[in-house]
Design a protein that fits this description.
single chain, alpha+beta, Lambda Exonuclease, Chain A, 5-stranded mixed sheet, two-stranded antiparallel sheet, 8 helices, 7 strands, disordered C terminus
Length: 328
């Protein structure tokens, strides 16, 4: 059953549940805008597929499947030949992506879109040589529980293991590499994965590698244990902020240039909207009257900054996390 707010369908309270785990994408959501996290994780509001994210999913699928063939056959023409079949599989598994080209009866826009995917695949061959790679894992789902009880999860594009046992974590990005001042934000996702691998395998990965197909750049970082310990502390602080927001229902919007790509402006106070009724039970935040907990967020709330409550501060986003369509 669904309810409606300002014409926007939202899941009923029956489907709502407190979050039980954290992925790089959802951590990035909360640092970008706590209200966005609520809309995606608590309310589970629907979002329209985008051409960019869908193209990223398609390219990832092709690069994963290419390693099914013998090394000598891993050529650019062979990879591009995989595109039509992977596009068919994507449409079957996610019928909503068909809407992207519903207004393209002649298929011209679809052809251009597939051509862009081909160019991204071709560029990958200028950055890595798949004939010399034998990944230990592809599209690897990882999950680890910290001593605090926080469960971390995610999907790693590729894991390479050297004969000496050294581990390299690789992630493909179909966008462009960030400017140097935003590199740390881009590496947050990779350090997250490295933390999970360390917790699971008791081994710090030797290298983290981001392959940017949009610009033809490769960003690498060799982590040390202290890096992963810092990430763990940041995630614990983040999870505490999420816990408080979940219990109090106090999810603050945070306006940024990324708002232009958000599907939820119609229900966001920053754009004159009203969020759907909060579907979970709430308790008063420290220093906040109980009656205030039921009031909708006001436009001025965002001006208070990234605080979620009087005692918990949201760690600031340091550049955002690029992602693709997927369960993480």
């Amino acid at each position: 059953m669904e309810s409606s707010t300002d014409g926007v369908a939202v899941p009923s309270a029956v489907a709502a549940a407190p979050p039980v785990s954290l992925s790089p994408s959802r951590a990035g959501d909360f640092m970008q805008c706590p209200l966005l996290y609520r809309f995606r994780v608590i309310d589970k509001l629907p979002e329209k597929p985008s051409e960019a994210a869908t193209r990223g999913t398609l390219v990832h699928a092709v690069l994963e499947r290419l390693f099914d063939v013998p090394a000598a056959e891993r050529t650019a023409p062979r990879a591009k030949a995989l595109l039509p079949g992977q596009w068919d599989r994507l449409r079957e598994s996610r019928p909503e992506v068909v809407e992207l080209f519903a207004d393209d009866p002649e298929g011209e826009r679809l052809a251009r879109w597939l051509g862009e995917a081909e160019r991204l695949i071709e560029r990958w061959f200028t950055l890595e040589d798949p004939t010399r790679l034998e990944p230990a894992e592809r599209e690897l789902f990882v999950e680890a529980e910290l001593e605090s009880g926080l469960r971390l999860r995610g999907i790693i594009d590729r894991v390479d293991v050297a004969p000496t046992g050294e581990v390299r974590i690789v992630d493909y990005k179909t966008g462009k590499a960030p400017r140097p001042e935003y590199a740390e934000g881009a590496l947050f996702q990779m350090k997250f994965y490295a933390l999970v691998v360390w917790r699971l395998k008791k081994t710090v990965p030797r290298r983290l590698q981001l392959v940017y197909l949009g610009s033809g750049d490769v960003l690498t970082y060799d982590p040390v244990l202290a890096d992963l310990e810092r990430v763990e502390r940041k995630l614990l602080a983040l999870w505490e902020a999420i816990r408080v927001a979940t219990e109090t229902g106090d999810w603050r919007p945070r306006r940024s240039k990324l708002c232009g790509w958000c599907d939820h402006q119609a229900v966001c106070p920053e754009f004159g909207g009203t969020p759907p009724p909060y579907p979970l039970p709430v308790r008063p935040a420290a220093g906040v009257p109980a009656a205030a907990q039921s009031l909708p967020a006001q436009r001025g709330d965002a001006a208070a900054g990234p605080e979620v409550s009087a005692s918990v501060r949201v760690p600031e986003s340091d550049g955002g996390v690029q992602g693709r369509m997927g369960p993480d």
